[in-house]
């Protein structure tokens, strides 16, 4: 099952998914194209983050070192999708080419992705920088404190919907915004940890996902996985994000005798003629905010009495259209979010021993 849906996903192309997404909620194709190409920020020449860094050293350092925002026009994965889109000349033309990407990923120049001026506004040359602060940056903060500000780029209704999720979430009821969680955890708040942070640095969010109530009663392993994030589903990102729970069943010598996997993501159906043009969401196995999901894994009968340990690993995969269902071909794989080892002393009954290797959690995340 997991393999089949992954294969379907395998031939999807992110940009087209985004476009199709827009078609779902826009009346016409031209309206959808216009929506996707609409820059989400003030236009104008940027003086670049180096200028801001002269006085905002700490903010700059965090943004540069940790935030995916800083590489959103230069990351290999992004450039790769841009290149692929360009191979489809006519389609690329209709969709607006790279400009569509720059509409959210930040301006082409200075090639710093979503930089300081993308969010805070352009610092026009010839205007003293502190005047720009008084006129633009200070008043601008009020607008930027709302979840809606993040949604300008992070929400594509019907498809990528952390904001839609959030509106209906416990966090929203409590007044805990995107910023409250994503900017509260670090000193300057500009690290914006998420899936990719697990790749770029140590993970921040311990306890956001848990695996509990593990019971092994041959031939079945039962468990409960829970998304404790009160703000949105996981994965929160686009269709290339997959959360996977991988299980490795081992014998007394430590040799793997069986593997199994469960994936959590949104899967799209594809229009057969075009092959890569997604039509609609066919399956949604994302873990909803606060959801507890019970899972069962069955082993082949011949393994009775042979299982000594079961190792469970939970991690994210960023996939692209050439992975052919093989998660090892992902662009990046996060370091484990959770690792659990279950010892089976008499090889049939449950005895759970939980190991979590993650760093301490800032309280602001709940
Ligand atoms: C010459 C030094 C300097 C430079 C260069 C500079 N800032 Fe500032 N910035 C400041 C000072 C001083 C403050 C006020 C700090 C305070 O009052 O807490 C500030 C505050 C801010 C604030 C908070 C707004 C407020 O007043 O509450 C933002 C946002 C900001 N800067 C963004 C930027 C951006 C974006 C850039 C680059 C385009 C930049 N700054 C460049 C000195 C600078
Ligand atoms: C993804 C959008 C985004 C980017 C990129 C971004 N900021 Fe911010 N920044 C915010 C938001 C949101 C706030 C919080 C506003 C508030 O709570 O008042 C903020 C707050 C600030 C503040 C005031 C609070 C503080 O920590 O002192 C400064 C200064 C600032 N940003 C500077 C920068 C600089 C410099 C850069 C580039 C290195 C940058 N920002 C990049 C969104 C962004
Ligand atoms: C209650 C806290 C909380 C709130 C509110 C919240 N988030 Fe998150 N978000 C998280 C945590 C924790 C993760 C990390 C999940 C993980 O990767 O294990 C995350 C992950 C993400 C990711 C990473 C991508 C992915 O696939 O997981 C994005 C993007 C994101 N959030 C955007 C948003 C936006 C936009 C909002 C507001 C509409 C928001 N978040 C509100 C806690 C929160
Ligand atoms: C101008 C558009 C824009 C705005 C505004 C914006 N983002 Fe982003 N954000 C992006 C893009 C594009 C990426 C993906 C960068 C990449 O991976 O190439 C991203 C990445 C992220 C990630 C990392 C996701 C991951 O999987 O690691 C988080 C978390 C995040 N944004 C949160 C926020 C929050 C919270 C706000 C509001 C304060 C916000 N963003 C505002 C465009 C934006
Ligand atoms: C409507 C805004 C928007 C548009 C338009 C857009 N993106 Fe994105 N993209 C995002 C956001 C926001 C994220 C962060 C996803 C997340 O983690 O939630 C992202 C993430 C990505 C990622 C995965 C993150 C990574 O670094 O691996 C790739 C690849 C990507 N975009 C490529 C593109 C390309 C190529 C285009 C143009 C054809 C494009 N995007 C157009 C908003 C947009």
> What is the terminal separation in angstroms?
33 Å
Strand content: 15-25%
Chain-averaged pLDDT? 79
- Based on helices, strands and strand pairing, what is the structural class? alpha+beta
Shape: elongated
Biggest β-sheet description = 6 strands, antiparallel
Low-confidence segments, given as residue ranges, are 1-13, 198-204, 272-276, 348-366
Number of strands: 11
Q: What's the multimeric state?
A: single chain
Number of separate helices? 15
The rounded Rg comes to 22 Å
H/E series, N to C? HHHHHHHHHHHHHHHEEEEEEEEEEE
Task: Walk me through what this model shows.
- The protein is α+β, with helices and mostly antiparallel strands and 366 residues long.
- The chain has 2 domains: 2-197, no CATH class; 200-365, Immunoglobulins (Immunoglobulin-like, Sandwich), CATH 2.60.40.10.
- 33% of the residues lie in helices and 21% in strands.
- It has 15 helices and 11 strands.
- The chain has helices at residues 2-10, 14-25, 29-37, 49-53, 57-66, 76-87, 89-95, 98-105, 116-120, 129-144, 147-154, 162-167, 170-173, 178-182, 197-200, and strands at residues 209-217, 220-227, 241-250, 256-264, 266-271, 277-284, 292-298, 309-318, 332-333, 338-343, 352-353.
- Helix 2 crosses helix 3.
- The chain is elongated.
- It starts with a helix and ends in a 13-residue tail after the last strand.
- The relative contact order is 0.15.
- The structure holds heme C (5 copies).
- The site of one heme C has 27 residues, from helix 8, helix 9, helix 11 and helix 14.
């Amino acid at each position: 099952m997991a393999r089949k849906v992954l294969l379907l996903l395998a031939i999807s192309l992110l940009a087209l998914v985004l476009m199709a997404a827009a078609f779902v909620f826009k009346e016409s194709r031209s309206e959808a194209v216009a929506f996707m190409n609409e820059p989400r920020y003030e236009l104008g020449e940027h003086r670049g983050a180096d200028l801001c860094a002269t006085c905002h050293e700490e903010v700059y350092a965090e943004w540069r070192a940790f935030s995916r925002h800083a590489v959103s026009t230069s990351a290999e994965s992004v450039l790769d999708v841009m290149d692929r889109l360009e191979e489809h000349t006519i389609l690329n033309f209709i969709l607006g080419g790279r400009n569509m990407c720059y509409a959210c990923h930040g301006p082409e120049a200075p090639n710093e992705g979503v930089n300081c001026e993308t969010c805070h506004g352009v610092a026009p040359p010839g205007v003293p920088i502190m005047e720009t602060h008084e006129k633009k940056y200070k008043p601008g903060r009020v607008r930027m404190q709302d979840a809606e500000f993040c949604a300008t780029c992070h929400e594509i209704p019907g498809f990528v919907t952390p904001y839609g999720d959030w509106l209906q979430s416990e966090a929203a009821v409590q007044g805990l915004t995107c910023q409250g969680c994503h900017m509260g955890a670090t000193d300057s708040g500009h690290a914006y940890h998420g899936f990719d942070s697990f790749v770029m640095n140590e993970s921040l969010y311990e306890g956001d996902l848990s695996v509990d109530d593990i019971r092994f009663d041959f031939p079945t392993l039962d468990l409960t996985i829970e998304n404790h994030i009160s703000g949105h589903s996981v994965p929160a990102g686009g269709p290339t994000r997959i959360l996977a729970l991988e299980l490795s069943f081992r014998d007394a010598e430590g040799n793997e005798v069986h593997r199994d996997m469960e994936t959590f993501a949104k899967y799209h159906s594809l229009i057969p003629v075009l092959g890569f043009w997604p039509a609609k969401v066919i399956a949604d196995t994302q873990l909803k905010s606060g959801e507890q999901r019970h899972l069962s894994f069955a082993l082949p009968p011949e393994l009775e009495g042979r299982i000594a340990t079961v190792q469970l690993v939970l991690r994210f995969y960023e996939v692209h259209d050439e992975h052919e269902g093989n998660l090892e071909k992902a662009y990046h794989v996060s370091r484990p979010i959770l690792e659990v080892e279950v010892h089976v002393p008499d090889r049939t009954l449950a005895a759970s021993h939980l190991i979590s290797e993650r760093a301490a959690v800032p309280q602001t995340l709940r």
